[in-house]
Amino acid sequence: MSLLSLVVFLAFLVAFALRADAEWRRVHHPPTGPYSGVATLVGDPEYRGAGVAVVFRIEGWRYEAVFYGADAWRVRDHMQGESVLLSATRGTWGASVSRYKLVRHVAGRLEDVVLGGDWTQGSALARATNRVRRLIAHGASSLPPAEASLLTGLVIGDDRAQPREMRTAFRDSGLSHLTAVSGQNIVFVLAVFAPVITRLRPRARLVATLGVLGAFTMMTRAEPSVLRAAAMAGLAAIVFARGGSLPAWRTLVVSSSVLLLADPFLAWSVGFWLSVSATAGLVAIGPRCETLLRRIGCPAIVAVPLAASMAAQVATLPVLVVVFGRIAPWGLLANLFAVPMAGAVMLGGLPLCIVAGLSGGVVAEILTAPLLVGVRWVWWCAAVVARLPG
Questions:
Q1: Residue 89: beta bridge partners?
Q2: Cα-based distances in Å from 253 to 62, 277, 283, 308
């Protein structure tokens, strides 16, 4: 490591430590007491037992509220960015709070919530992305409920409605990463828009690319894995537009560092580290794995996806062992059979679900029929591999 690199690294560590300390101090001291005014949804409502949990942003702070009964029905279909008038009492979490809540910037909870009658739809971008999400969900609803939940998970990372047995099968088979939006989804989304984007002038092409990345990130609720992927793609697009190029490993380091400075709590996100480590594995180990497989006579059509799967599995192994204390022993086999089909579903799922959502009826069933085959193949791969010994 050169002296300049060492100085930059140390400066990053100091800046990150200061930012992280400030964020921890802030999240532990939110405003408390009665509040009456506008509250904006952060993320989409999620079922929690017999209730519906939501996170509101109030005056720049995030608070969680859990609704039951009629109020749960009133909030469950609303989406991120939509606002409502409410009155509530703001409180802190206490010593027993889960760190998961804090690292998602949820500083406290709301009690005795009284909701107003009318909701506002938020900004133009929020309205547009929410409309696309609703269209995708409506198009996917022509499939059986379980398959529809898997389809929305593959396309936009919305796995809230997946049954428990499906979640368990994907986790035990090493395929749970497929329902977390990541770099693969970003590549496919850009591929969908490529025929239009590539016809534009360089500056307009850059603006369009960044616009697509920003809209897709917001539509998928800016999960850590999609933030990492979108940041890498955005940085690569900016450098390319200026006539330069960055090696993949440097793009990963720079984009990840910027994200960590912007939101230090990503350092406590398992999804972020799995995404970063998997990408690092693809960059550092993937080519070597492919070379090794070709030397032993493996055809290219098998060597390329198998090498990528091997590299990602090896690179994420330390994170899986440290955090979960377990690995999926048959994950390599599951990924070899499931990932190509999942990629086809991701690529075709976005436009087909949107058109199906606009059409409805028999047309929607016809359009989503190929997606049903692909979704069931991925689910069967997960279910079969999850039952293998070990």
A1: 34, 111
A2: 29, 11, 12, 20
Of 2.40.50.140, 1.10.287.1770, 3.10.450.540, 3.30.1540.10, the CATH number of 31-122 is 2.40.50.140
CA distance 207 to 75: 35
Evaluate whether 64 touches 54 at the Cβ level (below 8 Å).
Answer: yes
Could you tell me how far CA 114 lies from the centroid of its own chain? 31
pLDDT digits (tens, 9 = 90+) for 168-189: 888 888 888 887 777 778 888 8
For residue 290, count other CB atoms closer than 10 A to its CB: 20
Look over the chain and give the mean of its residue pLDDT values, rounded to a whole number: 90
Tens-digit pLDDT profile for residues 31-71: 999 999 999 999 899 998 889 999 999 999 999 999 999 99
Q: Quick one: tokens of 372? A: 């049903």
Q: Are 41 and 79 in contact (CB under 8 A)?
A: yes
- Cβ atoms within 10 Å of 325's Cβ, excluding its own: 7
Q: How far is CA 275 from the centre of its chain?
A: 10
Global pTM value: 0.88
Domain limits, the chain: 31-122, 128-386
Tokens 């979704």 found at: 375
Non-local (6+) Cβ contacts of 63 within 8 A are 30, 55, 56, 88, 90, 106, 107, 108, 109, 110
